[in-house]
Amino acid sequence: MAAETNGAPEGAPAVQDGAKLAPTPANAPANAPANAANTEKLTAAQLKAKAKAEKAARRAQVKEAKASAATAPQAQDKGAAADGKGAKSKGKQDGQQTQGRGGQLQAHRPSVSGRRPSMPIVERDIRSGIPECFSHLPMAKRIPTSQAHKDVHPAVLAVGQQMATFALNDSIARLKATLLAFRKVIESYETPKGNSLSRHFVPHVLNPQIEYLTECRPMCFAMGNAIRLIKGNINKFDIDTAEDEAKEGLLEWIDFLINERITLAEYAIARNAAQSINEGDTILTYGHHRLVEKTLLEAKHDGKAFDATVIDDPYGCGGLELAKTLRQAGIPVSYSPNLGGLRPKVAAASNVFLGGEAIFANGSLHAPSGTADVAMAAMNAGVKVIVLCETINFDRDRVSVDSLTYNEIDPERNTADSFRLLFDNTHDRYITGVITEFESGGGNSPAQAILALLRKQEDPLID
Questions:
Q1: Closest CA to 337 of 304, 370, 303
Q2: Is 309 helix (H, G, I), strand (E, B) or coil?
Q3: pTM of the full predicted structure?
Q4: Listed GO molecular functions (predicted)?
Q5: Which residue of 2, 165, 203, 246 pairs with 197 in a disulfide if CB–CB is 3.0 to 4.6 A?
Q6: What sign does the dihedral 196-199-201-203 (CA atoms) show?
Q7: Helices (H), 203-356
Q8: Strands 433-435 and 358-359, how do they pair?
Q9: For residue 231, what are the CA distances in angstroms to 193, 224, 253, 262?
Q10: From the DSSP assignment, how many helices (H) and strands (E) are in the chain?
Q11: What is the DSSP letter of 116?
């Protein structure tokens, strides 16, 4: 072995061969001067290679420590992996491979490039802080358009995103946007060959739109009622009805629904409610509801002089916008940013006007959180509580006695320590009357008479 090493021609890569064949110089004969000289040269090269490898290992270790503390020990293995040739690039490659193998055994594999893992890997479950007794309540969430059903219309996609972010919050605003989106769906619909609109449209076209909207945010009661009416109207078409005729009938019916149950209903309710305001009254309301705003502006337009008290929802802060609108119209306004001092404010009012999201079959009111507190304080003070609500928001099939059955969790007020419900339930005994667009008793009907009111609306011949 010594003869082969000494006989190597000059200019040949003796250092590299020595690094491979003589990793431990102690094995060479101690009394060979030539061997000793070669051993000194090989040891220096080997030390230089080791220094490079250690330097590369230290750099890798710093990167790994920044990326994840769990992978820091793996950075030390890069020095051993790069001990063969000591090349800087190879040391990095070996370190990456070791990290990749180790990362598969971990729950969250760190990035090979040393970057932090993407946020969805460590994202906290948004419902983790909700107690089990409230786990049945839904919560609005943004559904990426890439995850939506392929048959969802672009107009419906836009409405779903707006509802998930509460850009569309009011029940009637959500209903109107949904009906207009469905109108576009019908216009772009073409019945497949061998099918009929009355049999194909609902299960294959309309239902995917509804499912997507429900995933973004639970449907309000007005949307549920309108969808049932739409499906019932579609089922009335004969199987042999021409597609153009059926589509034209659906579009006309949707236009009629928007005009009669939304536009004209708002006008009729505001007119009926404004008649109940007298000169010198003080009208108290909670938050910001469009029907209350229209009513007060209508009364002002009629020339009535009255005051308004707005108690705001401290989370929504919509009452501030209402107070500004009323003041610009020349109505004296007293504004309170929260429910503090509620009793004296309610006691000084003549009437309390409240807007509702829905009214159940037993007469209970489904409205933004805080409405029940205002209604109870008013009834205890002997002040009339009048609810303004369209009949499209009435639910004739379900009853409610608390806020735990039909509700939503506020996604903006949901943390690991607390959460907030969007709505509360006001029992019918705290409601003096309900004003709707339906002409019955001057438009002011008891909350308990909702079922009779709906039956008479459908069949005017009923006494």
A1: 370
A2: strand
A3: 0.71
A4: transferase activity; translation initiation factor activity
A5: 246
A6: negative
A7: 207-216, 221-235, 243-258, 264-274, 290-301, 318-328, 342-347
A8: unpaired
A9: 22, 11, 12, 19
A10: 18, 10
A11: P
CA 212 to chain centre: 12
SS3 445: strand
Measured between alpha carbons, how far is 6 from 14 in angstroms, rounded to an integer? 10
Tokens of 412: 């903006």
**The one-letter amino acid at 327:** R
Report which residue type is found at 202.
Answer: V
Give dist(CA 362, CA 396) in Å, integer: 8
Whole-number Å distance between alpha carbons of 318 and 312: 7
Q: Which residues contact 176 (CB under 8 A, 6 or more apart)?
A: 258, 262
- Complete domains list, the chain, with CATH: 2-103 (no CATH), 138-265 (1.20.120), 278-458 (3.40.50.10470)
Structure tokens at 361: 């079959």
Dihedral (CA of 409, 413, 418, 423) sign: negative
Residue written as token pair 């920044």: 66
Q: Scan for tokens 């099939």, then name that residue.
A: 397
